[in-house]
Design a protein that fits this description.
This protein is α/β, with parallel strands linked by helices. The chain has 30 helices and 24 strands. The strands form five sheets. Strands 16-17-19-20-21-22-23-24 form an eight-stranded mixed barrel, surrounded by five helices. The protein has a six-stranded antiparallel beta sheet with strand order 5-4-3-8-7-6. It starts with a helix and ends in a 10-residue tail after the last helix. The mean pLDDT is 88. The structure holds ligand C2E and calcium ion (CA) (2 copies).
Amino acid sequence: MDSMITNIIFLFIPFVILIGFGIEIYVKNPSNPMNRDTMILMLSLSLFFLGGLGVYVLPFEYARPSALYVKYASVFFSMSIGLAFFSHVSRIRMNRALLRILRLLPMAGAAAIYLRMPGMTLLLENNGGWPVEQLDSRLWILLQLTAAYNFLLMFVFLLIGRKQKRSTKRRFKETQRLRIMLIGSVYTVAWALLTTAAGYAAEPYLNGPFHAALRSELPAYCILVWALTVRYAMVKYDFLAAAGRKFELLFRLSNQGIALVNAQGTAVESNAALHRILGLPNKDAADGIDLVPFLQTEEAQPVKQLFVEHFATLTPIQTELQITNLLRETLILQLDSDYIELDEEMLCYLVVRDITEKKHTENKLRKLAYQDSLTGLGNRAFFFESMPPLLDGAGSGGHLLALMMADLDQFKLINDTLGHSAGDQVLQHVARQIGRALPEQALVVRLGGDEFAVCIGLNEEAEAFQHAERVMDALQTPLELFGKIYTVSGSIGISFYPEDGSAPEELLRNADSAMYVAKQSGRSRYYRYTPSLKALAERHLSLFNGLGRALENEEFLLHYQPQIDIAARRIVGVEALIRWDSPELGRVSPDQFIPLAEETGAILGIGDWVLRQALGQARLWHAAGYTGLTVSVNLSANQLQNPHFAGRVAELIRDAGVPASMLCLEITESAAITNVDKSLSICRELTELGVSLAIDDFGIGYSSLSMMNRFPFRYIKIDRSLIQNIVADTRDADVALTIIELASRLKMIVIAEGVETPEQLSLLQDFGCQEAQGYLIGRPVEADQVTALLRQDTPTLPPAA
Ligand code: C2E
Ligand code: CA
Ligand code: CA
């Protein structure tokens, strides 16, 4: 009975240990097929002890099948499973069918037992109450042969595996694992041989059930030795355990390409994402991927150099790289790397991100941020981005740069009268023309509104003026808008690098100053910046800024200049002339600020104020009994384009409570023809109100009387420049006479402007000119002084010639 218990203990403990190993290994990493295989191997090995246990614990008639069909058959199973496991661990690469046959061969022993082939059996003797196994000699030989085959093949597998690992320098832990298994297998065989030999040698001395049990079971414990080393290898060198497992998951699941790259540029390990990026078919790249060919494109060449240098010093790489992959796609990659020592070899741990899409979006956004969508030119931001390298280039190359700033003349008028879509077309036209006029390397941008800037390299300053002239010529190219032909003009300011500034802002500011002055001095011209220009431009800027506030600060006032009936020597009218008393600039002439107000649009508010003010004064004079007096007010083109203008005039007249006939509106020829149809209809509305109209500054410009005949003008004002010379210059006198005669035929009243001498006045009287205005009669003065003149019965006027 003692022996029975001893045997049970001898068999039960290994059985439990093997089951435990199996579970332990499996739990360690359930998703790894290798761990699962190991568990199956352990369970299969445990059958050997389970079958042995059955011999002792089962009733006698079941003891024999338990020994034969479980215990001995399991030896064959285990050997097949073991071979499968080892070929797997060693990553044996050979003909699959052959490998399968080699692995399944031990199973033939189990099959022979189950098929009850002759000799595949055993006897179980009942030796004094406890069973003794008697293997048939053929089964015994088969067992020995199979075991020999098994171990031989196992060693071959392990050795091949180790050699392979060494050559491809694969995972360090895998190599370690193989080493342990190899050593374990040696121990196993040694154990089996030693215990068997010891058993034979000690046979004479062994007596009693304990010794018998020892002798029969100890060799079988080689299974346990073997299982122990397998377990140790699987658990201790489970390269997928814990931290390593995290890495493996990251490696596998990451959509960023990850690779371990050796010094030669071979990715010895790489994930699926990297294969995708490189356009490789996603098969096991066990031999590693040579990355060098991907670095052959021109863009990638410097990265190769970078890699070599960084590898030598183990400095991490962080760079962007453009490659062409195997699918002929051009990709932009972000590389980040660090270094790691594995299996005594230094490797570069490389993370590769495909940022092609991101780059494209970035470029698109960049383009949006730097491009003027209307003209396709660069914008202000682009200008300031592009300037520094140009300045650097000019600085080191020792050549000049010209910065030209161009601004369209009267663009606001175009926008206001023809609408914004016309304005857009003009800007596009201008962008095209500027581009055509200049060499290709010139940087042309639209700074905003109707402002353009050009930066161009030069050998000498004179070239800049040629370019400016070419631009102005190009701008003259006619443009069709709504079926009509227009031309635009621009004013250009030029500054030079390095003379006029070293920073883009400064150059631009100075070109801007020059441009302002160009505009001031009569438009459609170019100016080169000089420091003295700066003062002018600054004054212009103060004008510009001051004008914006002048109306609400009540800095404007009106002067009135008398107009007389020449024959009667009696004041019949006054012209309201605006004055601006600027706190910073003093009194500013309307010639200076009216054009600016027209450009900024401030003229609309100012014009309205003038009308209201003049009508208020007219009411006073009317109340004082000067009911026949005409008060003339100057209009700007912008006012005449406002379709509600006539309505507004009517309203103001009503508010003032004066007869409409007291008001005369002076319109220049150019204002009248800016948009003939529109201004004509407004003029008609105005005359319907009872307001009279005068054509101002006649005799300069077109002076087309027939054209003027279409407009309901009551007065023609001959320009001062013509009157000035009528005494000395007979040609001017002829022109004046012709105008006067034609006008009288057209039933218009002629007013001569700028009459300064009695000779001029008497000549005009001879010509039949009805009215006159000028310093001779009276300068523009405040309303009170005019009232004083009105009271005097024209005593200050020169007597009739
Ligand atoms: P304008 O309409 O031709 O006005 C006549 C200008 O000639 C006035 O200049 C006046 O002072 C000046 N003048 C008159 N008689 C003589 C003379 O005998 N000799 C000389 N040398 N000059 C004489 P001012 O006041 O400087 O006005 C200049 C221009 O400003 C005006 O020319 C007119 O076009 C514009 N302006 C003045 N007030 C207004 C206004 O309220 N609205 C608008 N839109 N324009 C105005
Ligand atoms: Ca006038
Ligand atoms: Ca005038």
